[in-house]
Design goal:
This protein is an alpha/beta fold. The chain has one domain (6-34, 84-370): TIM Barrel, CATH 3.20.20. The protein is 49% helix and 14% strand. The protein contains 16 helices and ten strands. The chain has helices at 15-20, 36-46, 54-65, 70-82, 87-103, 125-145, 165-174, 198-206, 221-230, 258-265, 274-280, 291-296, 308-311, 315-326, 330-343, 348-370; strands at 23-29, 106-113, 151-159, 180-186, 211-215, 235-238, 246-248, 254-256, 270-272, 301-303. An eight-stranded parallel sheet has the order 1-2-3-4-5-6-9-10, with helices on both faces. It is globular, with a radius of gyration of 20 Å. The termini are close together.
Length: 371
Amino acid sequence: MAGMSLQSTPGPLSEDVVRRAPKVLLHDHLDGGLRPGTVADLAAECGHELPAPREELGRWFAESADSGSLERYLETFTHTVAVMQSASALTRVARECVEDLAADGVVYAEVRWAPEQHVEAGLSLDEVVAAVQQGFDEGVAAVEATGGVFVVRQLLTAMRHAARSQEIAELAVAWRDRGVTGFDIAGAEAGYPPTRHLDAFEYLHRENAHFTIHAGEAFGLPSIWEAIQWCGADRLGHGVRIVDDIEVADDGTVRLGRLAQYVRDKRIPLEMCPYSNVQTGAATSIAEHPIGMLTDLRFRVTVNTDNRLMSGTSMTREMTALSEAFGYGLAELQWFTVNAMKSAFLHFDERLALIDDVIKPGYAALAAESG
């Protein structure tokens, strides 16, 4: 009935209900979310040799990413990046990204990608950003034409093993009023600390720009500490290893270390990607994922997909799995979603409008159906 509390609709929730719930996605890689058929089409166009035929390609990506071999996991991205070297390819991938996310019930997304990896065929950095933005604009127009709501922004990523972070940071600032909302660094954490890119982060601070940093996925607490205290990250990409600074006694008593306490006190958002974390070994299973404890402790937890193609996932799959593992209902899913919207690099008034006009009414409608 109208006005029913979300607390009265506990989990586990059906996949259909989760799909229809409005969702917010902060950590999604453009080159990790292609449709298998699109990879095959683009490979044929540019003459790139693929490791499997079209009908087996989706399974090959999932199995390679889930093989336990870092080399095979990284190989999957060599194929997606290879077919994303033309403006038309980038536009198609970006447009389909919007279409797929909107069909999954996502209403706001920040999609990250590394422009420096898409200039091998001669495009400039400005040209590749423009091509992706065109695809996003086309996708949003198609969603709105059907009466849907979808807002998307680019996060420009620099690779931590490369030396172009200052250049990419300047690119993000140059495009920030034209579809780009922030900056990120990604790549192997071990051996490539974020402090190697301090010039870029100091520049972003001076320009009043937002940025997130991949940290605490595999390397642990030092990576998180540097990202926050040296670099000043607004959000943590993954951040799952913050649990290494939390002690749970035999009687269930919890003690937070200094870093974990700081992260919680400051409401620093954690961009958690459950299925990806299991795949990379950062968590042993969904049921054992630290997201359960971090949610109980009320860290600023958000739920994300990371690489939809490689993990064979979607926001619906991620949230359905969490509902099944932890009994989360609509109240918890709305909490994750509002957390993410509060943490987005969108202007405050736009964030508030999506929360008040789209997210909360969407969950209230689902709760009323359940009643």
